[in-house]
TrEMBL record:
The gene is hflX. The lineage of its organism: Bacteria, Bacillati, Bacillota, Bacilli, Lactobacillales. CDD domains: HflX (cd01878). GTP binds at residues 209-216, 241-245, 263-266, 329-332, 349-351. It is found in: Cytoplasm. Belongs to the TRAFAC class OBG-HflX-like GTPase superfamily. HflX GTPase family. InterPro entries: G_HFLX_dom (IPR030394), GTP-bd (IPR006073), GTP-bd_M (IPR032305), GTPase_HflX (IPR016496), GTPase_HflX_N (IPR025121), GTPase_HflX_N_sf (IPR042108), P-loop_NTPase (IPR027417). Its cofactor is Mg(2+). SUPFAM superfamilies: P-loop containing nucleoside triphosphate hydrolases (SSF52540). GO terms for molecular function: GTP binding; GTPase activity; metal ion binding; ribosome binding. This is GTPase HflX. Monomer. Associates with the 50S ribosomal subunit.
Length: 426
């Protein structure tokens, strides 16, 4: 399917089975937003209430008949299903409705494919799509090669019993291995970089949370105040999955305290497990962070569910035990007073016309990541000039004077940094 280059949005119908799920309406709303993010126009939504899905067809036969009529009358090109279907369910539904079927996982994968900009993100999406396709290869392709004509004799050595399907499976398997291998080497480089950062002891803070909550907007606000001049702005868009790569920015606070801030892929309910594993290295910025900032859209009535999904997704990625600040963003949309801090949470607006929201947030970040900082006096011998320049860049030098033994400085620095130069402490 190529929906990217057509001007007219593709007309689609979304369908969903309500199995007495209290969050059903919300999941349909989200499905429609996902379709929109994929440049599709949802012309109508058809739902059915059942205790169990029909094993082979998802919907019941009567419902499918009326779905076919609606799809024809509405000139819909695709039917988008709210759940992940089995390959045979997809096949049966396609046969019975005469329309192409895309399930929720397929739709999310497609958005990721259209949104991926960096080489790494493109490879990760490709990997996830291939993994999704592998068990779904159609048996209709299992025509025996040795029964085909016009295929030349090229395949005869592969064993006459080999089917086209098996061959396609093997090709996919090879492609998957190649991409995995490539991503592994990218990941290795990243690990080295993050290790070097750790050695420099610059704390890392990662923005996580549901897609469209305002993570990139918050990153941009912080960068605008405390980033270097050349820091790039992150893409902000009112659509799902605007950010698909990890953006890291270095921020310097007025007292020379520095930290790295990273922004990454947002979450959504039922995020395909193929994507979670393919994006593992992109998301590793969050796994290595000293502090997480969970951004929540405070104006969304489903924010509790979104928070639950975020926590579940983090857990699936093996991220736990990292201190967290919860930011209830977009308070301006609900007419609430902001900024208000309570313990580890902050009600704020990334569109606060004053600097109060962003100042409150940065203060909370600073208090948490600089908790282990201590102020000490050191005398650094004159032949150890590199230590002075290191401290000037990475620590908070409060006072410096020259003595007979060397440069005497008063400095505020993290404990691990002090441990490496503790022989100079006085
Ligand atoms: N009213 C209001 N809108 C906001 C606020 N913060 C962000 N937005 C808007 O919300 C939309 C999404 O913002 P992003 O920063 O792109 O959200 P994100 O969390 O990075 O989303 P993904 O990259 O898709 O995961 C944009 O249209 C922003 O302008 C806020 O505090 N108030
Ligand atoms: Mg973003």
């Amino acid at each position: 399917m190529d929906t990217k280059f057509t001007n007219q949005p593709t007309r689609v119908i979304t369908i969903g089975l309500n199995l007495n799920d209290p969050h059903f309406d919300y999941s349909i709303k989200e499905l429609n937003a996902l379709a929109q993010a994929n440049h599709m126009q949802v012309v109508t939504t058809v739902t059915q209430k059942l205790d169990h899905p029909f094993a082979g067809t998802y919907f019941g036969p009567g419902k499918i008949k009326s779905l076919k009529e609606i799809a024809e009358a509405q000139k819909a090109q695709y039917i988008i299903v709210n759940d992940e279907l089995t390959p045979s369910q997809i096949r049966n539904l396609e046969k019975m409705t005469g329309k192409d079927i895309i399930d929720r996982t397929g739709l999310i994968l497609e958005i990721f494919a259209n949104q991926a900009r960096t080489k790494e993100a493109k490879l990760q999406v490709k990997l996830a799509r291939l993994e999704y396709q592998l068990p779904r290869l159609r048996t209709s392709a299992s025509v025996r090669l040795d029964q085909q004509t016009g295929n030349g004799g090229g395949y005869t050595n592969r064993g006459s019993g080999e089917t086209l399907l098996e061959m396609r499976r093997r090709t996919l398997g090879r492609q998957i291995n190649n991409i995995r291998h490539h991503l592994k080497s990218v990941n290795k480089t990243k690990k080295v970089q993050s290790h070097q950062r750790k050695k420099m002891t610059i704390p890392t803070v990662a923005l996580v949370g549901y897609t469209n909550a305002g993570k990139s907007t918050i990153l941009n606000q912080l960068v605008k105040r405390w980033g270097t001049n050349e820091s790039k702005r992150a893409l902000v868009k009112n659509m799902l999955f605007a950010t698909l790569s990890t953006e890291v920015r270095k921020l310097t606070l007025p007292n020379n305290r520095k930290f790295l801030l990273s922004d990454t892929v947002g979450f959504v309910s039922k995020l395909p497990h193929e994507l979670i594993s393919a994006f593992q290295s992109t998301l590793s910025e969050a796994a290595n962070a000293d502090l997480l900032i969970q951004v929540v859209d405070y104006s969304d009535p489903n924010r509790q569910l979104m928070m639950k999904t975020t926590m579940k997704t983090l857990k699936k990625m093996g991220i736990h035990g990292i201190p967290m600040i919860t930011v209830f963003n977009k308070a301006d949309k609900v007419g609430k007073h902001y900024p208000v801090q309570e313990g580890n949470s902050l009600i704020m607006s990334a569109q606060d016309p004053t600097n109060r929201s962003i100042n409150a947030l940065v203060k909370m970040i600073e208090q948490r990541i600089y908790r282990n900082y201590i102020t000490v006096n050191l005398v650094i011998p004159y032949n150890q000039g590199q230590i002075i320049s290191y401290l000037n860049t990475h620590a908070d030098v409060l006072k410096a004077k020259y003595s007979a033994k060397g440069t005497q400085i008063k400095v505020n620095l993290p404990k691990p940094m002090l441990d490496r130069i503790s022989q100079y402490q006085i």
